[in-house]
User: Which sequence fits this backbone?
């Protein structure tokens, strides 16, 4: 009887080990879940007046060199654009130079391809002294065709982490006033 009782105890200990071991193995793997890029984007004002635009950045760590693509896809442009104005958040403290900002025709990457500038678009780029806005004047209007275009920043990320919301305005052909195109919300960790 004593041997049967010992066998039952050994079986219970073995059963406990089998039940607890998957939990012990998965806990260290869950710590890397913070590195995953979520498909969720936070927008401050979910009002219908705001349009969420697509963007891509190569590096999201603080103080790292970064390449940020602000996409203008075909459905974001209804008419040819003569001018693009980009409102830069006050808290996005980084050195912006006109030669580090460009406008290009872009191939938006995905699972199998990388995001890449296909053709640089010649444009005059003006940055306000306080880095609060950026004006882009392409030499020829950006057409409202099937191609995607991007404003590309080659900058160092700011020292402070957070969400930074950029607003874009475009001046359509034949009009003298810029209209709202949409907003990009980028994340710096």
Assistant:
């Amino acid at each position: 009887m004593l041997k049967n009782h010992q066998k039952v105890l050994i079986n219970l200990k073995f059963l406990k080990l089998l039940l607890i071991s998957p939990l012990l193995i998965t806990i260290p793997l869950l710590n890397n879940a913070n590195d995953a890029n979520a498909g969720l984007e936070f927008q401050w004002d979910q009002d219908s007046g705001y349009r969420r635009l697509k963007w891509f950045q190569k590096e999201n760590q603080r103080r790292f060199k970064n390449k940020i693509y602000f996409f203008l896809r075909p459905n974001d442009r209804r008419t040819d654009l003569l001018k693009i104005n980009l409102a830069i958040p006050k808290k996005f403290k980084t050195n912006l130079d006109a030669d580090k900002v460009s406008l290009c025709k872009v191939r938006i990457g995905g699972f199998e391809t990388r995001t890449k500038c296909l053709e640089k678009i010649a444009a005059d780029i003006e940055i306000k002294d306080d880095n609060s806005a950026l004006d882009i004047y392409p030499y020829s209007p950006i057409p409202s065709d099937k191609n995607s275009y991007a404003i590309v920043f080659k900058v160092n990320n700011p020292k402070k982490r957070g969400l930074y919301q950029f607003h874009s305005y475009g001046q359509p052909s034949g009009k003298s006033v810029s209209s709202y195109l949409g907003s990009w919300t980028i994340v710096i960790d």
In short: Helices lie at 2-30.
